[in-house]
UniProtKB/TrEMBL annotation:
Gene3D superfamilies named in the record: Galactose-binding domain-like, Immunoglobulins
Protein name (Swiss-Prot/TrEMBL): Beta-glucuronidase
Signal peptide, first to last residue: 1-26
One Pfam family per UniProt: Glyco_hydro_2
SUPFAM superfamilies the record matches: (Trans)glycosidases (SSF51445), beta-Galactosidase/glucuronidase domain (SSF49303), Galactose-binding domain-like (SSF49785)
InterPro entries hit by this protein: Beta-gal/glucu_dom_sf, Galactose-bd-like_sf, GH, Glyco_hydro_2_N, Ig-like_fold, Ig-like_GH2
Alphabetized UniProt keyword annotations: Glycosidase, Hydrolase, Signal
Organism name: Bactrocera latifrons (Malaysian fruit fly)
Gene: GUSB_3
Amino acid sequence: MIIMRTYIRFLNLLFSIFGSIDNSLGITDVKVQYSPANESSNIDNKGKSFNYMWLHDTASTRGLLYPRESESREVRTLDGIWRFLPSDVNDPMKGVRDCWFKTDLDKVRPTHPMPVPSSYNDISVDTKLRDHIGTVWYETKFFIPHSWNMDQRIWLRFGSVHYAAIVWINGEKVMSHSTGHLPFESEITNYVNFGAENRLTLICDNTLVNSTIPQGTIVEEESDNGKVMIQRYTFDFFNYAGIHRTVHLYTTPAVYIEDIKVSTDLIDNHIGLVHYEVIVNGNERKAVVYDPPIEPLYIHVQMRNKEGKIVAHSVSKTTLNGTIVIKDVMPWWPYLMNPEPGYLYTMELYLHAVDESLLDVYRLKVGIRTLKWNNSTFLLNDAPIYLRGFGRHEDSDVRPKFEMFSFFTFMILDTWKRI
C-alpha cells in the first residue's frame, strides 16, 4: 500500500510538472463516448460512464498562481450552496445528450442543495448517493459587475473536482478536466454577461477505471434488490467525489503575470539568493518594436521580511528574470530545527509597461533553503535531517475531502504535541 501511495504521488507530480498542451481555451470539442476506456470486465459497460479518452485536451495546469487580491486583481469565491442533481446510474450521459446545461437544472428535475466545497457522498443519509457510481450535476448562479469589463480578463478556477468534469457558462462549454487532485482554470471573459446573472453548470464523474489515477474497476453483483454496479479499488480510502476545493472567480489585467519560477540558494546560511523568472501573458507584449530592442515590459521585485520591511529589491528593464541578494537572511527551517521555523518572505512583483505605468502586481510567499543529498544523508540547509511520519488522508467527519483549515491546523498542532 505504501508503494501504491508513492506511485500515485509520483504520477500526480508528473502531471503537475508537465501538464497538458492546450489551446487558448484549454479545451477542444468534447466527443462523448459511452464506455470506460480499456475497462476489462465481463459486463457490458455501454452507457455506464465517461470514456476519459475524450479529455485528452483539458484545462491547462501551467501557470496556476493561486488567486490573490492585489492592486490590479480582484478575487471572489463561488463557495456556498449549489443545486445538485445525480444522474441515473443506468444512463449517466443522458444529461449531456439532452443538453441539461442549456437550462436551469430545476427545470429538468427537482434538485437538492449541496455545499461547495464538499464530498457529496456523506452530506445526506441516502446510501444510494453515498455509493453512487457515475455522473452528478452541479449548478450555481452569479453576477459579474460592470467594472470588470474595463480591460480585465475574468478567470474561473476549480481547486479540485473528483474525478472528471466538464464546465459550462450560460450553456457554453468553457473547459474540461480529469485527474481530480489538481486545480484547473480557464478564462471566461467572452462567456459571461456583465451586469447580469450568469449560470455555471458542471458535470462530475467519479468512475475509476484502468486509466485513472488512482485506478479502479466496475463490476456487477447480485444484491437483495437485483443486480447493482460496484466500484472496486485496491487503495485504503473511500472514493469520495464532488467539488472538493474552493471555486474562485478572479480578474487579471489584459497583460498579466502568468507564472513565477523561483529557486533559492544559501551562502554560509547568512546570505540568501532568490533566483526568479517571470512569465507574462497578453497580446500587448508583442505590440511595440524598439530600436535598440528592449523588452516593452519590465519587472520590479522586492522582498519583505515577516515584519513587512523591505530587505532587498531588484529592477530589470531588459529581462524578466534575475537574482535578489538578501543579507542576514532567515533560512526556512522545519519545526524543531530552529527557534523560528517556517520563516517566509513576501516576494512582491510589479509588472510595468515601458512608459512606467503599472500593469500587474502579485505577491508570493517564499522560503529560502537548500536541499542536497548523498548516498546516506538528506541535507536541508547543509544540516542532516531525519524524516518521519506518514501520509495522512485529509478526510473529515462532516465534509470528507473539504479543505477545512481549522481541522488541518488542529491535526498539525496535535501531531507536534506528540513529537
